[in-house]
Amino acid sequence: MDRLSGLDASFLYLETPAQLMHVCAVMVLDPETMTSPYSFDAIQARIGESVHDVPGFTRKIRGVPLGLDHPVWVRDRNFDIERHVHRLALPTPGGYAELMDLCAHLASLPLDRSRPLWEMWVIEGYRPEGEDAEKVVVFAKMHHATVDGVSGANLISHLCSIEPGAAPLVPTEQRHPRDPGRGELLGRAVIGTAARPVTLVKVLKPSAQLITKSIGRARQGTAMAAPFSAPRTSFNGTITSHRSIAMADLDLDEIRRIKKATGTTVNDVVLAVAGGALRAYLAERDELPTSSLLATVPVSVRDSSRRSSGANKVSALFTKLGTDIGDPLDRLRMLAERNQHAKEHHNAISADALQDWAEFAAPRTFGLAVRTYANLRLAERHPVVHNLVISNVPGPPIPLYFMGARIEALCPLGPVFHGAGLNVTVMSNAGRMHVGAIACRESMPDTDALVRHFPAELERLTAAVDALG
Predict the structure, then answer these.
(1) Does residue 200 lie in a domain region?
(2) Beta strands 314-320 and 294-300: pairing type?
(3) What residue numbers bound the domain in which 326 lies?
């Protein structure tokens, strides 16, 4: 029996009609590389053949009686690929604007929890600006309860290869979750509930030690940025279910050149560019706060976690983006220093701390609290926890092929939250850095107005580095 970890289950409890907890990806494909002419029916059939023995694609959730424990995964005995892979065509003229509008609409729709928590939309008729040949786009959605950034990329690898006709990158899995009886579910839930006081004692001691260490770091000025210290912006309030989406490309070699010249990291450069883009976006609207925006940056703990189960193995750190600093090079230097402190502070925290505490998320109580929080619009009444989420997901260094079609762009999109209605994710792919931004449409109607500043900010940072000689 595969029980969801507390962290995995928390993404189910956090979900409301407005706060949708799936992650998405926009894949732009070149069908000319396929070994046989493009056909939706053929792609749908090949995806079905590739995933029918992969538990990550064929499992669904089953609740525990009385909500006494987190749900479990069971195999969907009625799995039907036609309920997961769909076909759409872009309206005329089939350009970038039409694609982003359609993807935003699809991102606004919840997943059906009675089935495996994923779906793909194969979108035909996309004509990128300046190109004659049509592209095929795959818009993929997976619930955060079943994947994080790394596990999501691994799951998609079942459908990708390094050559058009080659075998998938990841071999087929064979172990499927067992479907337990109602009595077993109830018995395990009762035992787990009875053991929680003992588990809580084990978690409290290291947490108390962490608080003491954090206070010491704060006094020394080496602590990571504190939550609830963010300035309020137009995208920090109660969200709706409507979304807006935008994408952009950056030159990964240029980012690496800046990293080498300044002795920083790729992540430092990406955050500095993001800070500059947000500064420019807010300044255009006369909304630029005097203090820096605060971002939550997810961090994978997959290599250091003691837990063998659970799809989500992540922690997070807070960092100020330097939106109050006009010079791009000064912003990068500030971020590099603060990120080093944040990493040291984060490394002092157990890799499983977030997962340990998430085990105490009570299904009914947690869900009720989230709905009450949204209905009372409390995100607009207390200090801002953080302004946005920024994720940096390492991708493949070489070209990949999805069902034989070369992936020309791969933009992941994370969820947005009440109080933080913007999520920016960057992912490297074959020498490019793809930027994907998703926001609550009412808070940020034109996400492209932000994303278009990313290439411009990279150019500004490049010019500043080149001026150093």
Answers:
(1) no
(2) antiparallel
(3) 221-396+412-467
